[in-house]
Prior knowledge:
Elements (H helix, E strand, L loop, with lengths): L1 H24 L1 H106 L9 H12 L1 H4 L8 E5 L8 E8 L4 E9 L6 E4 L18 E7 L4 E10 L4 E12 L2 E13 L2 E6 L9 E2 L1 H5 L1 H6 L4 E7 L9 H13 L1
Helix pairs in contact: 1-2, 3-7
Amino acid sequence: MKGDKVVRKRVIGLGMIMAMSAALYGCSGAATEHTTIEETNEEESEENEMKDTSDEEDSDDNDRSKADKGENSIKKIRTVKKVGKKEGVEAKSDSKSDEDSNEDTTKETSTTKETSSTESTTNSSETNKVEEKPAESIADNPDVQHQIKVITTASDLWYHPDDTSLEYMVSDLDHDGHYEIIVAGFQGSGHYTHIDMWEVAETNDGLVEIQTPTLEDPNGSTPDIIQNGGYITFSNESEYVYIASDSTHVSPDEGYEEVLGFKLNGNALEIEVLAQKHTVGETVEYFDASNGFKEGQPIDESQFKSCSYDRYGADHDNYETQFIWTDLQSGDMTTELMNSYVAFHG
Length: 346
């Protein structure tokens, strides 16, 4: 459109010149000039057409460039959309993966909680089991091991390897935390029991001898405690009393049996006779010990059997304590003595 306007302006200008020339020189010159002008115009028109063509080509190029750009833009847009779609898919997939992951995490968390709960229950159950058991076995207690070692180290005071009639036991009769080594054996024609005892000193570095009764004592009785087994024990806040018997044979047809209580009081083993049984042939008599040895009041058999409960039952608790003796001939001294104390401790 711009090129047409230029041609018209130029034709109008040349027309005016031709009119003036015609007036001055005549029509032939005007025709010739007109022709020249038209050719000139055609050339200009061709040039303009060429220019327009060039412009069109440029425009086409621009359009193509724009088209290319547009196509590229479309490609880019499509690419972006495609990528965006992929990203969307991947994002969706990731979201699904996240959901799966969250589900897995939830499951794992749930499983972890369940496992933790189970472990907690198990640990709680195991803790209860541990609490039900002793914190450590008696034989593993360092203090017990030390005192047994003190006793064995001082064995030259109490051990008689050549006398196989003797029996040995470790106890804590007064429950003061210091253990005793008891040596007992049958002696004499009456087959009475002889007892010797030592206790671990308060300094835990040696043994202290305990005074024990003999037949020469006023009551003339010693507890017959050599047999293994359970011994009735009466205890309160001030004492532990163990019930035993003592048998003395005067002749094949005559003998005495006594029920007595013994306890460790300080550095002495004390004996209390509770009741007596006197047998001569087929005659059997029972006495209490209110007036001392062989001078008690007559009682019946049931009173003889219940004498320990009648004496201590009102103000003492009662239970059973195990006495286990060893002759130290069949094993390691430390092990044998430890076993006897573990049995006593219960």
